[in-house]
Amino acid sequence: MSGHRKRRSSRGYRFVLAGVAVLAILAFVVNLILGPSETNLVADRSASPPEASNPPISTTSPPPIQPPAPPTVTLAFAGDVHFTGRTEDLLAEPSTAFGPISTALSAADISMVNLETAITERGVEQPKEFHFRAPPASLDALAAAGVDVASLANNHAVDYGPVGLEDTLAAIAGGPIPVVGIGPDAATAYAPFRTEVRGVGISIFGASQVPDRTYQRWTATEESPGIASTADQDRLLSGVSQASAAGDVVVVYLHWGIEGEKCPTPDMELLAADLAAAGADAIVGAHSHLLLGAGYLEQAGSTAYVAYGLGNFVWWRPLAFSDDTGVLTLTLQNGAVTGSVFTPALIDEIGRPQPVLGPQALNDVRAFEELRSCTSLLATPTV
């Protein structure tokens, strides 16, 4: 009995082992057919992520786009220029007539002076004490110095009568730079020189307020040539108003004041106020042979930069009130004067302005600033 059971038990064990083997083979075959289990797939993903994936989404807003800064324009101004007496010889070399001060003029986008002379070598002297004339090379000298526009609205533009005036107008027509404040008729004489710098429109007028004996006679009319003057102030103000309404920066260069007088006269102050009210942004001038105060004129609804006197510049004789001079450079932005720099100079023995350097330059700049004390002008605008 016991042997029989032992043989049966051995046969059952072999049967179990065979079943296990069959199941193992079946599992292996199923794995080959169906692939790895979900557990293995998860493990594979965590061990080796796919090469391609979506980029992360940023929640940070981009910085705002800043508008471009408004363009900046610079304008440089100097005073009275003559080429007679001791300065006549400077025209032997027009390209160097102004000397080193040309650097200050050339650095600005637009520079301007008052050319106080008839441009002629003919004509008859008018009944007055002083007479000035120069050849057309005087305009070449201005251009070479970096001057972009000149005014001839002054009390010496017609020193040599109708013949001299005819020559002057012909020289301007064929000259290298525009000239304002004079013309064959009033429409031309009172018209501005207009230009654009980096998209900024600029209109520049010239006029005289000096009431000498030729003031009325040689003021341009509808039918006759001459200069622009405040004998027809309404026409000047109308032109300024129109240019301002068109969106231009408006500059008026004036011949005004009293020779040797250190402060502006009431007539000068009234004219400056009228021009500012009409839309002028910068008002500069000469004639008194001295540097006068400069600064901001503020009144209801308007602000303008005013320089009452820029003195002599290229000057024909010594000891004419003062040899202190310089170049005033104004910075424009958003259609208004936002800054000013005065480059001091001293007229030398041949009548040429020489830049002042070193500590003396600082003293001269301070002295120029102090000239404002007898005016109603401000050092900086309040609005």
Keywords:
alpha/beta; Purple Acid Phosphatase, chain A, domain 2; six-stranded mixed sheet; 9 helices
Describe this structure in words.
By secondary structure, this protein is α/β, with parallel strands linked by helices. The chain folds into two domains: 2-40; 72-374, Metallo-dependent phosphatases (Purple Acid Phosphatase, chain A, domain 2, 4-Layer Sandwich). 29% of the residues lie in helices and 25% in strands. It is built from nine helices and 18 strands. It has helices at residues 2-34, 38-47, 102-106, 137-144, 161-173, 186-189, 233-245, 266-278, 358-370; strands at 72-81, 110-115, 118-119, 133-134, 149-151, 179-180, 182-183, 193-197, 200-208, 226-227, 249-255, 282-286, 294-299, 302-307, 312-314, 324-333, 336-347, 353-355. The strands form four sheets. Strands 1, 2, 5, 6, 15, 16, 17 and 18 form an eight-stranded mixed beta sheet that branches. Strands 8-9-11-12-14-13 form a six-stranded mixed beta sheet, covered by helices on one side. The protein is globular. Residues 1-48 have low confidence and may be disordered.
Helix content: 25-40%
At the fourth level of CATH, the homologous superfamily of the largest domain is Metallo-dependent phosphatases
Question: How much of the sequence is in beta strands?
Answer: 15-25%
Q: What is the CATH fold-level name of the largest domain?
A: Purple Acid Phosphatase, chain A, domain 2
In round numbers, the mean pLDDT is 88
What is the secondary structure topology, with strand pairs?
Elements: H1 2-34, H2 38-47, E1 72-81, H3 102-106, E2 110-115, E3 118-119, E4 133-134, H4 137-144, E5 149-151, H5 161-173, E6 179-180, E7 182-183, H6 186-189, E8 193-197, E9 200-208, E10 226-227, H7 233-245, E11 249-255, H8 266-278, E12 282-286, E13 294-299, E14 302-307, E15 312-314, E16 324-333, E17 336-347, E18 353-355, H9 358-370
Parallel strand pairs: 1-2, 1-15, 2-5, 3-4, 5-6, 9-11, 11-12, 12-14
Antiparallel strand pairs: 1-16, 7-10, 8-9, 13-14, 16-17, 17-18
